[in-house]
Amino acid sequence: MAALCWADCIARFVMWTMMEYLTEVWKISLVHAAGIVNIFSGLVLVLQLPVQYLADTIISKYWMLLASSLAYSAGIGFLTMSTPPVLAGFVGICSEYKPECIAEGHKILFYAALGLLAFASSCFLTVALEFAKDQLEIFRNENSSLSEIELRFLQLFFYAVPIAACTAISYIKPWNLRFGVSAICTVIATLLFLSGTCTYENTEPEGSPFTSVFRVFVASTTKLFYRLPRDASELYKSNDADDSYVVQPTCGLRCLDKAAIILPNKTIEQQERNRWRLCSVTEVEETKRLLQMIPICLTFIMPGVVSSIGNAFFVEQADLLNKKVGNLKATTVILLPFYDSAQKNMANIYTWCLCCFALMGMKKYVPVVGFAVSMIVAILCCITAAMVESRRLDVARSHGLIDEPDAEIPMSLFWLLPQFLLLGWFDGIRDKSIDEFFNDQCPRSLHKYATLFSTAVTGLGVIGGVLSVYLVGIISESKGKDNWFQFTLNHSRLDNYYWVLAAFTAANLVVYIISAKLLPLRDASFELLENFLEDAS
Fold this sequence. Notes:
The chain is mainly alpha-helical. 66% of the residues lie in helices and 2% in strands. It has helices at residues 2-16, 18-24, 30-46, 48-57, 61-81, 88-91, 104-142, 148-170, 175-195, 211-222, 268-273, 281-292, 294-298, 301-319, 336-359, 365-398, 417-441, 450-476, 494-518, 526-536; strands spanning 321-322, 324-325, 328-329, 409-412. Strand 2 (324-325) and strand 3 form a beta hairpin. Helix 1 packs parallel to helix 5 (61-81), helix 1 (2-16) packs parallel to helix 8 (148-170) and helix 15 runs antiparallel to helix 16 (365-398).
């Protein structure tokens, strides 16, 4: 199991260097390279939801982890083969690290590698923790005689191996060797994982509560031409239902109620055997609840676009500014602690407010209001970024540096500090608000998927950021005008793009307020509220 964690660390390190590889070897713009990496990151987040469903219904955690390790090995292997020197003789082109040496076959292998690595990473992030907990319990029982020093040594060894491996790989300059060594490491990790197969506790999947959502759709479709009874008490109620859990009936989406119709030509026992033809009222109402949440969930995507774009372009802007602090010269990293501090402090303030309102019995309103506040902060962040970028371009023009993409612009790095702080505050409120919203408003049977819903929405925001850059670029060059996203930052018009993001976020805020008013908010269950207060304390 530890070997798989090492393989995941190595794969993450490989993807961390991908921006450098694409800009140096493929010679594509930083915007294009960031788009490729961001789509990969977004896919990793989005795929975790379907992967969890597969692990709960079809494939056990062990086989899912094995598929992950094989995909890691194949993905980094394909990545190695996509470098020019590896297939130069077979393809019949040059072997140098230049764009003209990259054939169509290299690109196919590269994008196939990214797909495999995204699948592998999502599988690992989804099931590794649960599987590791099971195996750790077995390890503790079998090695109860180990001393505290021996356990500390094992922990140190666990963390030291991937750090040492990634550090050593970073000193390998040829890209084919760097990727090749990483591929060998992942293959060894897969073999080590397989060597312990007999010792793993492999539990079979027990089914997913998400299946009930699909069953409701199938059952209601098969009974489409049946009439609903006038008395709702005639609809099917499962005998296995928890009496303490009462779902309030809703008036909308009445067509789904047909899934709970009891047919007169068969006994209830006969119909209960086919779960895809008869669903309980509770299952129907929980499916309705999930559908009612879709409009407001769609408004969560736009702030994710702002977050992903800010993290990509803000750092790029900082690279071109004056980094002197007195007589010392800093790096762009100096701004990241301000962002992290702003994010953590705002998250702590949010948690404190959440506790206060939870004690007053008004917890359900905090995530809804908090997300609206986060969008207001996002609008201010975009406006601030647009004004600072306009000033940066003016300074570059006045000093004749527009055509010198690598020249340092005589403008202090700390001009970017306000937008980094606003981005940190925005991310701190947004992340906590989305998490708490899904925890409170998700149907109770789907509560284990609440975090994955939040993760998937974040992933859609990251992918949406890439699409927004592409679409805005196409629209901006209509009528013969220049594209706002050029090869260099000085020739680009990020300030205009930030204004567009501010306008779209404002429109998204209006849609969100309407959606929030239409969604009946549900109070968190006593059990969830008690767990939340315990965690907060």
